[in-house]
Amino acid sequence: MTDAEIVPSRIERSSIHKTIVLGLATLMAANPVIVFLLTKSFLASILVSSAAVALILVTHSWPRLKMLTVYLFNFMCLLSILVHAEVILRHAYPESVIPNLYTIEDGYYFNRPMLEERFRDKEYSTTYKTNSQGFRIADGQDPGRRIDRTDWLVLGDSFTQGAQVQFEELYTSFLNARFPDKIVLNAGISGLGIGHEFNYFIKDGFRYKPDLVILQLCSFNDFMNVVPQGVSFTDRLMVDWAIMRLILSGIRYQDPRELPLGRWTEPFRPDHQGNVDSNVFYKEASSRKQDDIAAFGKYVQLFDKAVKSIGAELLIVLIPTREQVYRHCLEEVISEFSIDENALDMSSPNNLLSELTGKLGIHFVDALPAFSKARGNMFFEFDEHLTLRGHEVLSETIGDFIETIRGKPAVRMMTKVLSGDRYPMYSADGSMISYQSLRDGNMELFLADGNFENGKRLTFNNIDETHPSLSLDASKILFTEGSAESLETEVVLMNLDGTEKQTITDNDSEFGAIPTFSPSNNQIAYALWHAEDPPGDYSLPQIVVRDLNSSRVTVVTDGQRENWRPVFSPGGGELVYISRIDDQFDLFAYDLSTKAERRLTNTPFDEWDPQFSPNGFQLVYAAQADGNWDLFVLDLRDSSVTRLTRTTGDEWDPSVSPDGKTLIFAGSFGLLEAVYSMDLPQ
After folding, report:
1. CA distance 249 to 311
2. DSSP 295-364
3. Considering only CA atoms, which of 3, 391, 445, 402 is closest in space to residue 160?
4. 674 CB-contact burial (10 Å; exposed 0-12 / middle 13-18 / buried 19+)
5. Are strands 641-643 and 630-635 parallel, antiparallel or unpaired?
6. CB 653: neighbour CB atoms within 10 A?
7. What is the rounded CA–CA span in Å between residue 372 and residue 262?
8. How many CB atoms lie within 10 A of CB 287?
9. Residue 114, CB half-sphere, CA atoms under 13 Å: how many?
10. How far is CA 423 from CA 140, 353, 467, 474, 565, in A?
11. Among 249, 433, 536, 542, which has the highest number of CB atoms less than 10 A from its own CB?
12. pLDDT (tens digit, 9 = 90+) per residue, 300-321?
């Protein structure tokens, strides 16, 4: 072989070696193991790594693209460093990962859906959970529950978001408790200004069809940098990368302990020009501040126009600063920043908004007078946000104003813990109320006193127990056991202390649900059905009466219709239940002596949940007259119907007190499921 033949051979081998090394180096940069740890997808790890190697090798094989290969490879190496750092941070140092709380939207940002975080600071420790839409919920609420309609939409920044307090301690939650038949939706997000809040409303918030929009503003940040900034490249990096949040958070968000007073003091600045440009309390104003105030006024007008366009009312609420409420806080900033007090007008934003809302005819609540009179610490010492006391005072102030324009609510919330309370039922003497509530991932049975206080848990397991009914002497409880979705629930009877538990539907092919006691305490009625062939098929539920002494079962209805929810009349001679005809449920009555059935309602919508009044003359029930469930009363003497509720939410599961004066029921208002009460017309 000649030297001329050897040289090309060496060149070819060298080129092959370089290609192999380049391919391996690329594979190391696009490490499939690292990609898998980041994406949790085996397919993605193979595709990404293969695509990276293929791209580099293809460009390397073309002489004209060799420089592009260099740029691509260097870019890939830089990206690889970032990806490796991300994986190391997430998996080796998870305690250092700053949670990503937000999604970037068009002109604003919002809570990430399905969050479950714990916020700890030297002043507070809170649970922060969101549902599948990103709305904050209580610890015991179902995150999969969605909301499509609201009565009151509350917009605001971190004061409304309230990450420093529990969900039940938010001023919006207190408002919901005060006006329990309203759906109150908290759409507050930290850092939002009036421009972002306007963007949220016109692009998303209006879809919830509120009739009242509450816009919470603050006497500092809402009057500075009013025009919302676009989403920056670093914003997107911080949303997508934990390593970037770790690096940039210390740069973008200053630790309050490093501030001159060891706390936030906005809008007060340590320099004269900063106050001239940004401090709404500072009398001297630069063109920048004047532009901000003009833009603020424009956004208020735009908000008012947008809210009115959907037929709703706008209520603006202004929260004061600590310096407006506490004299010593004002003296601290004046001294530390060498500000002449005569250069300040501490009522400037309040007067500005009062004048502006007055001209536009917008409802306005200035919270400063109430905060100035209230006792207790309404702001955290080192954090500018509201304490529990601050949220209480704010809710009282807003609630008092709403009562002047909307009137007092007729409904009272009885639930103390937001965990999906359902099926409240008075005992025979009214001294106790049985109900079900979500605990540890399933429904359990509870007992409370007549005021729905001093709740006592009766069951502790991983099985759903629902539809509780107390015996006449309140010594036993009757209920449904098992998952309703399985179609194989059982009727169970037990003592209140959990002893002598008896499955009434003890046949392997026999199932039942929603039982109730007779007034004599010796009989029970429930819906009964059977498993049929082929497996998975079931008979239609029939209403049956079982004698507890003899175990004899009397079938009340035939198997031609679907029947549920039997209740005995106070005298025990009749049963009322719901029966399905033409794809909808109506109320029926059955005389146990004559065995005669009569139809009580014949409407184009479903009736459900019948319960007798103590005198036996009326039936209270739920009906889906307007697409949602409301409560009605049927007078059995003349068949007249009285509507009790007309709300956006759902009311069901009624029970009348033994004196006939009070109605308790379960309700679903947006994200809240709870037990409520109201006075019955006499």
Report:
1. 42
2. HHHHHHHHHHHHHHHTT-EEEEEEEPPHHHH-HHHHHHHHHHTT--GGGB-TTHHHHHHHHHHHHHT-EE
3. 391
4. buried
5. antiparallel
6. 23
7. 23
8. 9
9. 2
10. 17, 46, 6, 17, 12
11. 433
12. 999 999 999 999 999 999 999 9
Cβ(201)–Cβ(306) under 8 Å?
yes
Q: Is the pLDDT of residue 10 over 80?
A: no
State how far the Cα of 612 lies from the Cα of 585, in Å rounded to an integer: 18
Res. 7: pLDDT tops 90: no
Closest to 434 (Cα-Cα) out of 443, 422, 444, 447: 447
Pairing assessment for the beta strands 465-470 and 597-599 based on DSSP bridges: unpaired
Tokens of 454: 């001093």
Reading the block at residue 577, the tokens are 């239940």
Read off the DSSP letter of residue 447. E
**CA pair distance 604, 583, nearest whole angstrom:** 10
Burial (CB count <10 Å: 0-12, 13-18, 19+), residue 133: buried
All residues at 6 or more sequence positions from 464 whose CB lies less than 8 Å from its CB, including other chains: 442, 443, 480, 481, 482, 483, 484
Tell me the helices (H) and strands (E) count for the chain, helix number first: 16, 35
Residues 111/200, Cβ–Cβ less than 8 Å: no
Residues facing 9 on adjacent strands: none
Q: For residue 54, which of 86, 22, 81 has the smallest C-alpha distance?
A: 22
